[in-house]
Amino acid sequence: MMASRGGVLDRTVGALAAGARARTAGMLAGGLGAILQVDYVRPDDGRTFVAPTHAALTPRQLKLAIDAIRAADIDIISLDEAHWRLVEGDFERRFVCFTLDCGYRDSIIHAYQVLRDNDVPLAVAFATDFGSGAGELWWVALERVIDEVAELKVRIDGELRGFICDSLAQKRATFFAIFNWLRTIEEESARRFVREICRGIGLDVAALSQDATMNWQEVRMLIGDPLMSLVAQGVRHVALASLPQAQAEFEIGEALARIETATGVRPRHFAYPFGDATSFGPRDQRLVREMGLKTGLTRIAAPLGPEHVGNVFALPRLPLDKRFANESFAATFLATAGHAVRRLASGGRAA
Prior knowledge:
The chain is built from 15 helices and 12 strands. By secondary structure, it is of the alpha/beta class. Strands 1, 4, 5, 6, 9 and 12 form a 6-stranded parallel β-sheet that branches. A two-stranded parallel ribbon has the order 2-3. Helix 6 packs antiparallel against helix 7 (about 170-180) and helix 6 (about 140-150) packs parallel to helix 8 (about 185-200). It starts with a helix and ends in a 6-residue tail after the last helix. About 40% of the residues are buried.
C-alpha cells in the first residue's frame, strides 16, 4: 500500500511539473522577462493562515518553479544583469530574477540551499533596523494575531468593530480590513495599534521581529556568497510617500550607509517598503535615482514591458507563491510581453 501511495505521489508531482513547464513556456513566449518576488519560503508548518499580501511557497515548490523556468528556456539572472539588459536593450533571451523581501530568517534558511544547489542568484531586500534588532514587523504580528484568534475586537477611527476569524476567508477579510486601514494612518500610530492587540494574546512584537529577521552577522554571511546580494529597503521599512522629503532622503541614504558600514558593500538597488502604488511616487523615484542606485523595485504585480526600459526606478515584480505548484504562475504572467518585444524590435522604445 505504501508503494502504491508513493507511486501516486510521484505521478502527481510529475504531472504538476510537466503542466507547470508547459504553461510557463506559453506564458513567457517572446517575453521580456520578470522580476519574481517572494516573502516566505518554508516547509508547510500546518498554519492555517498566511496574510494574502505575502507570497509564500515551500522549498519543494521553489525547486519546481526553478525547474519549470529553465525547462521553458528562460534565463535566471541576477538583478544587476536584469538592469543591464533593460538599459542596453538586450532582449534576445527571456529572463527572470528572484527577489526576497524583508530578510526573513526562515525564508533565507530554507531558500538558500535550493538556490545555491541550482546556481540561482537572489537579491534580498532588507531594512537596516532589522539588522540591529530595532525593527518591527507589525504586519507579520498582525498576521499572527489573526491566525491565533477566533474573534478580534478593535477600535478603528474611534469605532469599536468586531471581526469573526473562524474560517480562512474570514481571516483574510479581517487582515485586509485592518492592514489597509493601518496603511492610511501615521506609521507610529499603526505600530502602537498592533502592539496593543498583540499584548492581548501575549505576543511580543519586538521579540517576534528579532526572531523572524536576519541580524547583521547573518547578513554578512549571506552576501559572502557571490550568488547573494542585498537590496536596501530603508531604515525602518516605512512607506516613503508618507514622509516629508528630508525623512524620505534619510530613509534611503542612511540605509545605504548603514549597509555599507556593516557589510563593506553598498547596495545598488532599492525596494520601496510595501511597494504598492500608494507607497512611493515620482519624488521617491527621483531620490533613488539621484542617490546613484540602479533600480527601484515595487510590489506592483506585472511583467516587465517596454515602459520599464525607460523607467527602471519603478520596476514591477510578480509574486511567486504556492499556486505555482498547481497553476504555474499567475494567469497574467507575461501575458503582454510578446507585444512588448514586438514594439521594441520595431524600434518603439518607450521614452
